[in-house]
Amino acid sequence: MDIGGEFTTFVFDVEGREHEVTVKYKGYYLPSRINGSPENSYPAEGEIELEVDFPAGFEFDHDELEDYLQDEAWGDFLNG
User: Fold this and answer.
1) Cα–Cα distance, 6 to 16 (Å, whole number)
2) Based on CB atoms within 10 Å of each CB, which residue in 12, 33, 36, 41 is the most buried?
3) pTM of the model
């Protein structure tokens, strides 16, 4: 299933200043199947690509912020 959405959240730059950013995401999600025989069961699977509108000159810890925004995007999708 194709997924997509948009949300606003707050992030911190390397100096600890808070910034409001808009995040757009798109990707796919395949729900898990846990009934029937084991060979016909599988875990949920998905992937999300992010597009973030950062303020000019915004400096951040890329890996940490990427993980946070990925989690926020999945939460936005799964919680509706």
Assistant:
1) 24
2) 12
3) 0.77
Q: Which of 3, 17, 6 is nearest to 52 (CA)?
A: 6
Q: Which of 46, 67, 53, 65 is nearest to 3 (CA)?
A: 46
Neighbours of 9 (CB within 10 A): 15
Write out the CATH class of domain 2-78.
alpha beta
